[in-house]
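As promised in the previous annual report, we have extended the structural survey to additional targets. Below is the entry for Alpha-glucosidase.
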Amino acid sequence: MLSSSTSPLHLALCCVTLLSLHFCAAVPTSKVGFGYRLVSIEQNRNGGGLIGHLQLKQRTSAYGPDIPHLRLFVKHETQDRLRVHITDAEEGRWEVPYNLLPREQPPPLGSKASRSPSTASEYAGDQLIFSYTSDPFTFAVKRKANGQTLFDSSCGTIVFKDQYLEISTHLPKTASLYGLGENTQPGGIRLRPSDPYTLYTTDISAINLNSDLYGSHPVYMDLRNEGGEAAAHAVLLLNSNGMDVLYTGTALTYKVIGGVLDFYFFPGPSPLAVVDQYTALIGRPAPMPYWALGFHQCRWGYKNLSVVEGVVEGYKKARIPLDVIWNDDDHMDAAKDFTLDPVNYPRPKLLDFLSRIHSQGMKYIVLIDPGIAVNSSYGVYQRGMAKDVFIKYEGKPYLAQVWPGPVYFPDYLNPNGVAWWVDEISRFHELVPVDGLWIDMNEASNFCTGRCELPVNHSCPVPGSKTPWICCLDCKNITNTRWDDPPYKINASGSQAPLGSKTIATSATHYGGILEYNAHSLYGFSQAIATHEALQGLQGKRPFILSRSTFVGSGAYAAHWTGDNKGNWVNLRYSISTVLNFGLFGMPMVGSDICGFYPAPTEELCNRWIQLGAFYPFSRDHANFASPRQELYVWDSVAKSARNALGMRYKLLPYLYTLNYEAHTSGAPMARPVFFSFPNFTASYGLSTQFLLGSSVMVSPVLNKAKTKVKAMFPPGTWYNLFDMTKAVISKDERYITLDAPLNEINVHVYQNTILPMQRGGMISKEARATPFTLIVSFPFGAAEGDARGSVYVDDDERPEMKLVDGEASCIEFYASLREKTTVTVWSQVEMGRFSLQKGLLIEKVRVLGVQGSGQALVIEVDGEPSADGSGAYLAETSPMHQEKVEGGNSRSSTVVEVAGLSLPLGKKFSMTWKMGING
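The corresponding structure token record, generated without further manual editing, is:
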């Protein structure tokens, strides 16, 4: 019975709670806790926000004792970010270190500074409203504009124990969820109810489905479409401990084995606004050097420098673009970091090779693993021991095994460890002037498990072993601590594997006594930060780092690849979802090993994979030492596809680099799900076989064996084929359209209303970026009126900062209009044009798609002056434009207009107008 003092608002909130519980019936009633009651809530006048105190309702013993008193802190940190932070009210708990991921800190525990009681049951910001009920304590987050509930914890019971935290939220059945990685999702980018989502950085191959992989990103985007109007928001639980996230379709439950409940809510409402708001908190994506957008070639198994030289020469002979050549650990002396094999990679010959490729504009990247070989004659080890930089177990460096044999792991949470790492990279760079670093095995990976010692009765590593990944240390499992054997078992490795299996023991300690149990998933993130600091200090150049293990915020320092995939058709398809997910995670520079890491791809598969991989943001061919050679020139048919697809990529480099700038300034993914540009096109919510580059370039690859056609879906409008601009898809609805896709071709289309900056391309990005520009202007097919726009950003691509500074960068906005079917105007606005003028960058052509006319330009004016006799301007031959339709194809006459012979300085604004003749 409700008491007579119950307010109407409280009654309404109770009703909401009961309603939510009804719809959350899919989530089993928790038996591990009975929740908390809110005993007080106050306004924090010193810094803003609300501070509340929660009291346990009833104790349970499941998964350990409950924490009796909790402190709630709620604050609208910005107009588009709400934070809800719940922790132990009496003792500090582990959180993601504030120096590692800088952000606002809650008031200190026990602080009494300037508070006043709060009687309101809602706390409103500019876009979001936080509301709560007192007994049991639950909270909800709603949109201020329409009252839509985005998060509602009344769906379940809040449980808060030392090693087990649980909280749930109700979700409408119509919600489409994305994120919660890293994992390989066989069902596509949209999360599927009942699939497992476990977050704990783990070195298992990406071929394992629905399992925790190399990264931990506890954030999801929720896209809903109510009444034909889409709105997106995101929820981040900033917590580095292992967790299971259960998604039923109508509810989502977090089960976390430590830390705090630290939620951030981002209201969107567009998908692009969501990632903008998210990356404003976690760090904007790192700017990439221009060359990083070129093609990369790597292989584990380039046994000597002559092989590498042969690979570079092979690409040149095949006329396939190549910007970066990589070494896995083959360049190392006995797999030891920061060394060179004196026989197979002698320094004088390597330096001569680098001098030659650097003079051409090519780059060289090598791998380093975190494990430092335990070898008393190894300088890196000696200096590390002297600086006391390694992770400890019971006061001594924790012993593990990776490729060089016995190793110690550096502690990147230790300031001395970071300084030592920076110094070692500097020393190595003096030895070999590499252009970037690849940090691998940083989950951290360990070939052994538990507490290990050097063997007494045998050698480790085993001399001549063909299986160096087999543990050769003397090890014992550690199960006698609650950190190594916690009360709740997350679904690690898809099998509830021990947390310390094949990694650092979770009872090992970092600097300041920090437990590996808490910091495990931060290891690759902390290594990326230290590596970025090191590279940024070298020669004042923009760093390039590729990291396998990632966490929230890693994108501010590193690129990512999807790990050890398999050379088969399903992995080709899976790669798209993983690439798109990392765009949501704030890591837009991402790609998959083209043709597969292992075993042996077929010629046809490699053919199709380079067609897709040419449009990954990060485009690299990489393979295992046991696989046959699969460089793109090995097969003639693959070489042809590579020249075709990479040829288009290199023409699109100015567009890709502009997307890189957008990513760095607003978080916008380079490769995006289709719904990012078309959020009201609900058919695209689960589309995982196509994607957009930027807002308007659609990539539709062949993903199945023995197919020469592809079924593709296009949001309504006109889409022009970039390889043959006389072809267009005109879509009116959500039906799939069948497109021709011969063996050596991929379908790439540009949307109407777009101006796409392109260049001539080349064999290397340095060469390509010096060529003149062509502007591709696309209007709706046959429209009487139309408008288009686009932009390009150019700079000195190796400056550490990527920002508009006069003389160092330029940003040009392009506009076009079509009026009364015949009058076309194209013009530009320039911001900071001096850099472009100094570089002599020119526009040589403007190509306009979708207009109809007689093929005669009556007048062409450039900056108000008629071109003499139309000199330098001509119309391309009128060609039939093939319109792909759902029910088949037909031909309609259309003119592709190309104004050529121009020499317009990119850095100077221009305007050009012409009027077409009328057919008939």
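Confidence is low (pLDDT under 50) at residues 1-23, 25-29, 885-889. The first strand starts at residue 36 and ends at 44. These points will be discussed at the next consortium meeting with the crystallography subgroup.
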